[in-house]
């Protein structure tokens, strides 16, 4: 990949950010939109929402979950995620903590304040005990550290969590 | 026996007068002056009494001058004490006018009667004497009572000194009143009068110059509490502010002050006690003058005790607003306060060190958390795609784009690790530079060329003058610095926009500037910007990857090449980072 990497003092430096076709909401803009079958539930799959600011990670998870027949919508900010979760019923919401606009757990708190029993799995790379305790307190279905699991494991767990 | 006692009393008073004058000559203050007048005139009266008695024993009549001097000096002693009181607790103008008149009138009458108007003498003389003693007793009694009352709530040594003064003068009033009422007292009464007068001398002496042993005895009760306070000061106290606040409680207690402040070397107030902030700020302005004395006129003309604190960051100050009796009755305590100040300096330095170590510890933990989180991101992706490859969940046509993505994440991790390693090298002084003359414009263009594919959403340009800008530097390190600056400009411009790298030179050096239109830097974030792990923490930047080492590393690398990295920024409008490097001499071979 000579066009995407360049040799500098420390070796190579990333120049391929955004090189892959990783766009929110299945190629939409900033706000999430329906993907796959346009948001409809497939016979075998479930309707999922992924609130995750890392484009590459969100794409990877979506790719794997859609491989299993699920329908996945994606939001890259807490605000757009909360709007989607309020507007539609999802079987499961994957929620990151370190979001650009707000703490992801604030989204969960807002949903609980509105008495929404949305099924939420916290999916983060923060293995912080306080965050874990708070998410449990707010009734998250599970607290998963991304680096510890594979997308296949996540896909397998979906049915159990729902 | 009686005669010997009387001689002893007179001599003791005369000596007391001499000591009081000596004290005044030593300190030269208005207070010492009035006390010296009060005690020395009493001493002089006593000395003249001795002379009169000696003359009487030799059957020589006492000269008129001695009588007149005695009559003049006695009321003077009363006036002296009243004015001494006035320096602590102010008297009204009326009192200051009436009191000398009340003393002078009977004294003048007495002088006139004794020397010029003998026929009326016995009854009129007794009446004048009684009036004089009464006026003197009021002039002396009132301050004695006020001192006794004011002593309540003062530190023990000050309290005892003030009370000793009250007791001494109360004894003298008693002696004079009894003697005036019984002018021809004999036997037991006379002996009692002499003994009480004699006892008044050590009491008065102890008041203005208490011997060391006496002071030690007096403060014995407080000593244990003081030692434990000093111990607490050095060993405990969670932070400097708490420590300074606790120290102030004892400092004010030591000198019977009304309040105080501990000031940092830069003049800022570290802690205050019983003072409103405005007074504390005025104290801060007045502290650290050139006057070497500990006691000076401070805020509102009240005396203040200002002691320097030799801190490792410079000279701080322990300032206490002295109470009305501090300047004269707390000399011992001020000396102790000086010792206390030295202890406080050590304790404050210790607390600073502990705080610094705690901060370092926190920084280290924060960095480890941050670094592990930052490294987990790319790791998750790499692990995830490898597992998907393994289970056949990736279509063959997606392989190419996937490997490019994985490679970019590996590179991201490598860069982070390299930043950490380079920082470690910097701190271990293992960094070796390969300094040579280079064209800064060429280096900037090279970095912009390399970084351009990264700035997919940004307009990344280089503006370089046609002639080379020759600087002395390590080219690889300068490329690192510019890469970090350009990378930051892109990362912190989430809404795209222009990123421009310009190169120019002035008489001091070559300058490369990286200008963006990004989120900018808030003034409160500026101080931590170039520190290790000094990442911007706000919603707009929380998802920006990085270890927080980049800018620290850039500045350190630049400084080790004789240059520097600086920044000008406006929140919401963008930032301008500039790298300055020393110019190479013309004609030098370019790398």
Structure characterization notes:
The complex is a heterodimer of chains A (162) and B (591). In chain A, 35% of the residues lie in helices and 19% in strands. Chain A has 162 residues and is α/β, with parallel strands linked by helices. Chain A has one domain: Rossmann fold (3-Layer(aba) Sandwich), CATH 3.40.50.2300. Chain A has a five-stranded parallel sheet with strand order 4-3-5-6-7, with helices on both faces. Chain A has a two-stranded antiparallel ribbon with strand order 1-2. The longest helix of chain A is centred in the middle third of the chain and has 13 residues. Chain A is globular, with a radius of gyration of 16 Å. Chain B is an alpha+beta fold. Chain B folds into four domains: 217 residues; 133 residues, GAF domain (Beta-Lactamase); 70 residues, Helix Hairpins; 146 residues, Heat Shock Protein 90 (2-Layer Sandwich), CATH 3.30.565. Helix content of chain B is 62%, strand content 13%. Chain B contains 18 helices and twelve strands. In chain B, the strands form three sheets. In chain B, strands 2-1-5-4-3 form a five-stranded antiparallel sheet, sandwiched between helices. In chain B, helix 3 packs antiparallel against helix 4, helix 3 packs parallel to helix 5 and helix 9 runs parallel beside helix 13. Chain B is rod-shaped, with a radius of gyration of 41 Å. The termini of chain B are far apart. The model of chain B has no long low-confidence stretch (mean pLDDT 83).
CATH class category name of chain A: Alpha Beta
Strand order of the largest sheet of chain B: 2-1-5-4-3
Overall shape of chain B: it is rod-shaped
**End-to-end CA span of chain A:** 42 Å
End-to-end distance of chain B = 110 Å
Write down the CATH topology of chain A: Rossmann fold
Q: Specify the oligomeric state.
A: heterodimer
Q: Name the CATH superfamily classification of chain A.
A: Response regulator
Please give the share of residues in helix of chain B.
55-70%
The CATH architecture of chain A is: 3-Layer(aba) Sandwich
Mean pLDDT of chain B: 83
String of helices and strands of chain B: HHHHHHHHHHEEHEEEHHHEHEEHEEHHEE
